[in-house]
Amino acid sequence: RRPETGSAADLIHDVLVRAIIDGELPPGSRLVEEPVAIAFGVSRTPVREVLTRLSTSSFVKRDDRGALRVRGVTSEQILDVYAVRTALEGLSARLAAMASNPILVAELKHAHVLLKEAWDRHDVRSMSEQNIAFHAVIARGTRNAMLLRFIDEIHDWVRRIPSTTLSALDRPRRVIQQHEQLIEAISNRDADLAESLAREHMQDAEAVRLAMITATLG
Asked: What is the rounded distance in angstroms from the CA atom of residue 200 to the CA atom of residue 210?
């Protein structure tokens, strides 16, 4: 879609980044100046600026021939994501419990219902997004703008991982149980328990992810 308002370069950059995060531009996709300019209906100048910006980011890389291609997420980066996510989600749950109110609890319960409905449909992709949405509700409940920004960024990294731990046998059932425990702890304003549960929840996900990586390498 052609950008309508704001800086053309900024808008093109945001659209391309979102396409990479959402998998619409999968790893290995080549980004070429002229086709991108035609797709957006702009001159090559803002596209050149965007591609230069992207070339120094974690989203793309130059191949052996100098072509700009979408970068995949390595096994090492995936494990780094979970290490950081465990710490951030633990803090997020603690602060959300401390600031808990009926509106936050209602939003968590609603997000949880949507996740269970996706589970009932056996819709793994939707389950993954609803799982992220559930944790985003917790982050918003902290009322900490900086933490929310970091959580949003780590969630975007999770979206870039080409598979989901929710595809693993028995993982969805455990997630449902763990989310219910988190809701209760946050509802009761039990910050210590909420943090502990959130960290255990992420460590469980990390263990599943490690097993998936090991199976792939094997």
From this structure: 15
Pair of tokens at residue 117: 């409905």
- Are the C-beta atoms of residues 135 and 115 closer than 8 Å to each other? no
- Considering the entire predicted model, what is its pTM? 0.84
Q: How far does Cα 2 stand from its chain's mean position? A: 26
Full 3-state SS string of 67-92:
CEEECCCCHHHHHHHHHHHHHHHHHH
φ, ψ for residue 142, nearest 5 deg:
-75, -25
Distance CA 100, CA 94 (A): 10
The C-alpha atoms of residue 50 and residue 109 are separated, in whole angstroms, by 40
3-state secondary structure of 60: strand
Helix (H, G, I), strand (E, B) or coil at 30: strand
What pLDDT digit, counting tens, does each position of 63-99 carry?
Answer: 888 899 999 888 999 999 999 999 999 999 999 999 9
Q: How far apart (Å, rounded) are the C-alpha atoms in residues 53 and 156?
A: 18
Are 97 and 194 in contact by the 8 Å Cβ rule? The answer is yes
